[in-house]
Amino acid sequence: FSEDSKHLNKNCNTSPKSNVEVETFLPSPYHIALLKEAKNKYRSVRMRNFDINYIDIAGINDVLFKGNSSLVEADLQHSDLIAGVYEGGGKVWECTNDLLQYLESCYELSYFQGKSVLDLGCGCGLAGIYAAKCGAKVFFQDYNKDVINDITIINVLLNAPQKSASTFKFRSGSWDDAHSLFGDEKFDLILTAETIYSTRYYPSLIKIFKDTLRAHGTVLLAAKSYYFGVGGSLRAFEDNLDCNNIKYKSVWSTRHGLHGLEREILEIKNQY
């Protein structure tokens, strides 16, 4: 383990869309108007030291999504996945909550001070917001521009209006164009949840880990054991990690999920 392990509590053991859009944190009049509406509609995740407030596609569709938007299409189709258009970022998935609870239970708040964190496939951005509230600089990435613009940025503003703009970066686009997404960015911690549902993303996902994780950095990946209908699974992803000689271990799991479907968190380190 790296030196960062001293901050852990002792009781814890190919995409078809290639264009990359860059979002800035400075809130536009559009974001300010959305934020005003969101303040009456947000939900909260209660953590030990603070709450994380958020909006999602279910609660704000009538307010936020006027005109052409992939979020409107997804909501009208009652779909969590529209290939090449929408990848489910408008809702908070079960494994995101697992990841939040793991961070709170197993990482001291001091760990995040001064750290650079990537919330990969961020969706509503809750994991990254947790890290930011604990003192990290956070880079939010999602496949879908509308998710970043209409949900992630609003959630950051709901939780950290006093933070400097330099604390956050937002980008959308395909993982296949990773250099355009991240450039020379390096991260101490990569947080990602429910991102291994399709095996076609595995090579790009693993390349991002290799290219952007600092020496002694850590990836925490939360996922279900199997994704019915789309083919991804933890075991298949672990096979891909093995083929790339990447070290990992399971740090949390449950066999009491929906219909007995196991959920798990993998810890992937640059060096063991």
From TrEMBL:
<keyword id="KW-0539">Nucleus</keyword>
<protein>
    <recommendedName>
        <fullName>protein-histidine N-methyltransferase</fullName>
        <ecNumber>2.1.1.85</ecNumber>
    </recommendedName>
</protein>
<dbReference type="GO" id="GO:0005737">
    <property type="term" value="C:cytoplasm"/>
</dbReference>
<dbReference type="GO" id="GO:0032259">
    <property type="term" value="P:methylation"/>
</dbReference>
<comment type="similarity">
    <text>Belongs to the methyltransferase superfamily. METTL18 family.</text>
</comment>
<dbReference type="InterPro" id="IPR029063">
    <property type="entry name" value="SAM-dependent_MTases_sf"/>
</dbReference>
<keyword id="KW-0949">S-adenosyl-L-methionine</keyword>
<keyword id="KW-0489">Methyltransferase</keyword>
<dbReference type="Pfam" id="PF10294">
    <property type="entry name" value="Methyltransf_16"/>
</dbReference>
<dbReference type="InterPro" id="IPR019410">
    <property type="entry name" value="Methyltransf_16"/>
</dbReference>
<dbReference type="GO" id="GO:0018064">
    <property type="term" value="F:protein-L-histidine N-tele-methyltransferase activity"/>
</dbReference>
<keyword id="KW-0963">Cytoplasm</keyword>
<keyword id="KW-0808">Transferase</keyword>
<dbReference type="GO" id="GO:0005634">
    <property type="term" value="C:nucleus"/>
</dbReference>
